[in-house]
Fold this protein.
Amino acid sequence: MFCDVTLDEDLTKALAKLNIDQPTPVQAKTIPYAMEKTDLLVSAATGSGKTVAFLLPTMQQLLQDTDAQTGTRALILVPTRELAQQIYNQCVALGSYTQLTFGLVIGGESFSRQKSMFRKNPEIVIATPGRLIAHLENNTPFFDDLEVLILDEADRMLDMGFSDDVLAIAARCNTERQTLMFSATLDHTGIDSVASQLLNDSVVLTLDTVRDKHAQIRQQIVTSDDDAHKIKQTIWLLKEEKPQKALIFVNKKTQADSLAGHLRHADLYTAYLHGDMDQHQRAHVMKRFHDGEIHVLVATDVAARGLDVKGIDLVINFDMARNGKDYVHRIGRTGRAGEEGLAISLINHNEWNVMNGIERYLKQTFERRRIKELKGTYTGPKKTKASGKAVGAKKKKTKDKAKLKSAQRHRNKKQIGKPKKKTAAKKLLTSGDGSSAPKRRDT
């Protein structure tokens, strides 16, 4: 038995087909509670097997209760289209031997086609909050028969400003439902606020937190002079490390296209992904990356959450993540399911303090790495021998000013008791009327 619970034969066959025979820690802890229809708040790291942890008990409940109503019975809310698509694919795989039907509701897809899908009442719907709210405003879906509401990557949804949408959607759902919330971190005031409004007599399961060390991922930093230097370093790292698949993060959409062009020019099979691309383009890029047609993907943080592609063994932060949580979700794209991974961050002088703050937040020290072939001028902030603290320009200026004052005092001390010398600028000639006039040069 999987997780010491009895599963429907069709689910057992699907698990065998997917080569899933042993539960991960989050699955082992979550599934028994979920099977008892208990509300849960679960904190677990990316790549820990959360999707199966909530899909398997939900599907089991739907299969064993054959007297249920005909409306949608389970709703899964996620922050991004990519994550929604991945969970939909996982639903199809786990439900391949069952008669369960599934629906996908995300932006960038045909609104009318989605309305038609709702009329067929799929048992499980996976949706992003923004598009689902649009359907609710048109009175398209009805969740009066909903048995399970699942919020995956709940912290990310709140960070993206979906808190009001999530609560509005939950208010339209059956009040007797079971609610499961999954998050990478529980140290978030918004999580507590939303959880208190959605969960009843819930059990809190903390398996991992955002600060937990990723022992399977080597985390390195390489100092860089500027973007041009970073481009050379990125190309060198890709050719030196020879990853099966690499994911490179940038902070701006325009950078994704530009950097991908430089990498293609270096004969690296590269594509880019960002939020301004339509859904067809994004899906096409993800399929090519998943199938191995491209080996390098340059992306903004749109791909940081939920992207689960086998074979990503190198993550490069071309631009350092803006905060610790985003950093963790970026590097979590590698080293998944027990595999080893490598995460390298390229750090210039503007990013050093951000990197330092992330180290403090995670209570870790990243490995320093140097590329001899591409040695730059910037190697990190200068440090004093006494304190080891970085010396800034302002402190250096203050120190030089103190030296100048000390030398001036020394000269003044040596001049005590001696007549003052007149400077050339102060030599004046006295006229007959007692006034002073400047000395004239002969012409």
Q: What stands out?
A: The CA atoms of residues 22 and 223 lie 42 Å apart.
